[in-house]
Design brief:
The complex is a heterodimer of chains A (229) and B (69). Chain A is mainly α. Chain A has one domain. Helix content of chain A is 80%, strand content 2%. Chain A has a two-stranded antiparallel sheet. Chain A is flat. The longest helix of chain B has 19 residues. Classes of the chains: A mainly alpha (229), B mainly alpha (69).
């Protein structure tokens, strides 16, 4: 969401707020439609099969997030720099030619629409998978909407990219949560029974946090060794 | 690139990402969990350490200068 805000801000500042906000609105409508169609469709699948599919997807997806966050935290990958991305988006948006369609700047609309849609797909994916596996898509949607409102409100207030948000820490936390739920649901879907049922979930969470921090420590050491070699 | 190929590429990147071997490792680990459960063994213990191994191997590949990322 932070990345989407950066793109909308760049589109609004350089190409006009009307086209940027229309692009944002159109993307939110498409994302809402995806959740509205996929969510109820997934609830028709038996819960064990659903948890196997959702768990597998979350585990593959969560490991991607965790891997990137660990590589950033250990110095092997550059930290996300929202100010640099914002400056690049501004330069590209200023350099692009102007094409008016239906009274709107088409570049600004497309930039905003694509940015919000692509970044928002990750959120829609999490809403649909978590919501369907727990049988409460409405609650997952409300939680995502609340996060969207908070990010948008902060964006309107500061009128600048959210460079001070500890983005890698947030992504680390998301990666840990996705991986934890992925392990839990995939194992259940595969026919395993966790000792203590749902009470095993915090234990899996602690395990994932422990291996993540251990990986960061080991890779930091490796990074220093490679740098000094 | 055709639209269908681009669509497929987008979803591949979205779900599988940079390291397809990590995604394949996840599938193998879940398959072994299912096999253990189907054979009547306790299977819950397998997936957490298997995930740790898949993650670590993926990180090793990404940080190995000889592997080129």
């Amino acid at each position: 969401m932070v990345e989407a805000l950066t793109i909308v801000l760049a589109a609004g500042v350089t190409r006009g707020w009307r086209s940027a906000l229309f692009g944002l609105g159109a993307a939110v409508i498409v994302l809402t439609a995806i959740v509205a169609v996929l969510g109820p469709a997934l609830t028709l699948i038996p819960i064990s099969a659903l948890r196997l599919v959702v768990g597998t997807l979350l585990l593959a997806f969560g490991l991607q997030w965790l891997r990137k966050a660990i590589l950033r935290a250990s110095g092997f990958k550059a930290l996300h720099d929202e100010e640099a991305i914002y400056a690049q988006e501004l330069a590209e948006a200023r350099a692009a030619g102007r094409e008016e369609r239906a009274g709107m700047d088409w570049y600004g609309f497309t930039l905003s629409f694509k940015g919000v849609l692509l970044e928002g797909l990750e959120v829609a994916f999490i809403v649909v998978t978590f919501g369907s596996a727990q049988g409460n898509i409405a609650l997952a949607t409300v939680a995502a909407a609340a996060a969207l409102v908070i990010v948008a409100a902060v964006g309107v207030l500061v009128r600048a990219p959210l460079a001070r948000v500890p983005e890698n820490t947030l992504k680390f936390a998301v990666g840990v949560m996705l991986t934890t739920f992925g392990i839990f649901w995939a194992a259940e879907g595969a026919g395993a029974h966790w000792p203590g049922g749902d009470a095993a979930l915090p234990v899996v969470l602690v395990f994932v946090i422990a291996i993540s921090f251990a990986s960061v420590v080991l890779l930091r050491h490796r990074h220093v060794t490679l740098a000094s070699a | 690139m055709s639209r269908v190929a681009a669509f497929g590429r987008f979803w591949w990147d979205f779900v599988v990402g940079d390291d397809w071997r990590a995604a394949a490792g996840v599938l193998v680990a879940i398959g072994i969990t299912a096999a253990l459960a189907a054979a009547g063994f306790a299977a819950w213990w397998f997936l957490p350490p298997a995930t740790a191994i898949v993650l670590w191997l993926s990180l090793r590949r990404a940080t190995n200068p000889k592997a080129g990322g």
